[in-house]
Amino acid sequence: MNNTSNWLVHDHHKYDAALDECEMAADVGEWKNAKRLFQNFVTDLKLHMQMEDEVLYPLFVEENGDPEGIIAHLSEEHDYLARLVHDLAYIIKANDFDHFLDSLEPLHKAMNQHNEHEEKVFMNMANQSILMRRDEIMERLHAVQNKQGRRSWDY
Ligand SMILES: [Fe+2]
Ligand SMILES: [Fe+2]
Hints:
By secondary structure, the chain is mostly helical.
């Protein structure tokens, strides 16, 4: 949090590490553990995406508009991630462990690509006015935790 805009890209490394851990468990056949790790990952990711969908993305649009559709594109990437999570949830429900790792890999890759893309966008868009509103924004991010999210998840 010492970098000026680090607080905007909260926790991305955590999701990468969580999926690494899940993959390792699945790889050695620890299915129960892999499922638990995946469930925890999804719970955290849902909240993270909700904070972006409902606070950060609208904030950037409010500040800078979105003439090139960059924020809209990030939002579409979220839709895609949610679809991949849905597929994995289906695989878990069906106890189809042969396909678990195969499906985890594209999610991991798509998420890392999205996070990298998002970090670039946030760094570019974090103007002085947004950085000065840090406390207010943090409060709004925090408030999301107690709200029902708008995105529908089947998992
Ligand atoms: Fe995101
Ligand atoms: Fe993010």
